[in-house]
Amino acid sequence: MPLTKEPTGPDPPEPDRPPPAPAADGHGGRRKSHRPWSARRLPAALVALVILVAAVGTLIDVVAVRAGRRTSAWRSNLAHELAARPVDDVWMLTGAAVAAAVGVWLIVLALSPGLRHLLPLRSPANCAPPRLHASLDRDSAAAALRDAAMTVPGVGRAHVRVRRHRVKARADIRFRDPQQVKKDLAAVLDEERDRLTLSRPPCVVVRVRKRTA
């Protein structure tokens, strides 16, 4: 008697597997992040206000002319000055230079992220989309580095300034050899900078001076 294979049900579903973690960049399992973009509310408001005032004033004057009234004096004078003045006139050149400067300023604002007082932090490599974006204020970073500098034996006072690409630290030495204190201070600041997990860690520049008084 031939054997028949009984039909079986559908295969059981495979357990859900977590998505593969994105590749890290070799800095403690974290990925680089970019500086957040500024909303540019003040420049946008100023430009919108100027355009609104100019458009409303021109529209009111055009409607008044269509209604049978005379053209406003300011528009007549403006049209006369633009038609009568030569291109190399001082006022024409000044106006063109101001307009060009404002245009370049707006282009720079549109192409740059702004928020220069914020330092972007590295996002975790296993962070699923949407990615986590975090930033640290420069003053907060400087305070953390200054507190770390004060833990070095021999440092009586420290001043730290944090920039995008460089950290400048100045310290007054009360005792110990200045060169040894400088070496220890550089090592401590490098370690504290790495703890901040900045996306683009700045280089640390240390200057020390001997204070006996």
What does this structure look like?
- Strand 5 and strand 6 form a beta hairpin.
- The chain has 213 residues and is of the alpha+beta class.
- The protein has five helices and seven strands.
- The model is unreliable at 1-7 and 12-30 (pLDDT under 50).
- Helix 4 (138-149) crosses helix 5 (178-195).
- The protein is elongated.
- The termini are far apart.
Number of helices: 5
Measured between the Cα atoms of the first and last residue, the distance is 109 Å
Oligomer: single chain
Q: Describe the strand arrangement of the main beta sheet, using strand numbers.
A: 5-6-7
Q: Give the number of DSSP strands.
A: 7
Main pleated sheet: 3 strands, mixed
The general outline is elongated
Rounded to an integer in angstroms, the radius of gyration calculated over CA atoms is 32 Å
How much of the polypeptide forms β-strand, as a percent range?
15-25%
Write the H/E string, N to C: EHHHEEEHEEHE
Helix content: 40-55%
* Unreliable stretches covering 5 or more consecutive residues: 1-7, 12-30
What does the average pLDDT come to? 77
Q: Structural class given helices, strands, pairing?
A: alpha+beta
Essential attributes:
213 residues, alpha+beta, two-stranded antiparallel ribbon, 5 helices, 42% helix, 16% strand, disordered N terminus
Topology:
Blueprint: E1 30-31, H1 41-66, H2 73-84, H3 90-111, E2 118-120, E3 123-124, E4 135-137, H4 138-149, E5 155-162, E6 166-173, H5 178-195, E7 203-210
Parallel strand pairs: 6-7
Antiparallel strand pairs: 1-3, 2-4, 5-6
